[in-house]
Amino acid sequence: MIGMKSQDWPTIHQSPEMQALRDYVTAADGSRYANQAASTLRLDVTHSNLMQRWHDLVFDSGMTVSRVKEKLYSHGGTPAADQELYLRRGGGDTLFLWDERKTLADYGVKNGMEIHIKDTNPYSLSANGGLEDVSQVEKYVMPDEAYDKLENSVRAIKRREKEKAEAELAARIAAGEVIEEEPAESTEQVSERIPMGSRCQVQPGGRRGEVAFVGAVRGVKGVWIGIRLDEPQGNNDGSKEGERYFNCKGEKYGCFARPENVEVGDFPELDPFASDEEF
Fold first, then answer.
1. PANTHER family, per this entry (predicted)?
2. Which domain holds residue 112?
3. How far apart are CA 107 and CA 65, in angstroms?
4. pTM assigned to the model
5. Dihedral (C-alpha) 104, 106, 112, 113: value to the nearest 10 degrees?
6. Which CATH number belongs to the domain containing residue 85 in this structure?
7. pLDDT in tens, 36-65
């Protein structure tokens, strides 16, 4: 089967496995009505306004059409006076059950046939998805002020958990078990220490370049420094995940570093041909 195209695969009807499954599922179809009373009928029911259908509803062959309508009212919600019933006998053969005094037996109804309900009321509750389309149901929306007052809501539970965690952390800090972290610097604070356009040296590797960006980078926390490197010793071209933060000579001439790894000062561009023995 390896390398076969989709059109070469057997259809459901050609597949022996599917045929075996079909045979298993339908094995008792020939005798499914064998153990019921002689006057009992099991019928499928559909409705003109509803997507759903009812399978194997139980009726008695002696029930009049009027009594059948009363029974179906509890399923489709259509009052008996607004119902027209049609018997679908298979093969496109449909019969209008117009006489409400006649019984199902009078119309020759058999097991497995289908009764179709036509709702004749244009203002029916089931029309236009009235009984099935939940988007038409007006939802109750609780105001935030009222929700905040609830003591057993998810928001209240999360609020209590947060307050408890903060209290426990404060107690551990007071006891000397945890060293309180200093708040992270803002972009403005970092920019004052590492101004745009400054010459710098980046660790690791002592790479030199110029500060080309100071700020947040999408997908990572904190403030980052973008450096336009003198040599292709970086890992990008000033962009990350398709978003450009600064321009540079080309691929590998850019990098992003944490502020603590960037040193600003007199770091001129190195001459790769300079000798350590010359002044």
1. DYNACTIN 1-RELATED MICROTUBULE-BINDING, TUBULIN-FOLDING COFACTOR B
2. 37-150
3. 10
4. 0.45
5. -90
6. 3.10.20.90
7. 899 999 999 999 999 999 999 999 999 999
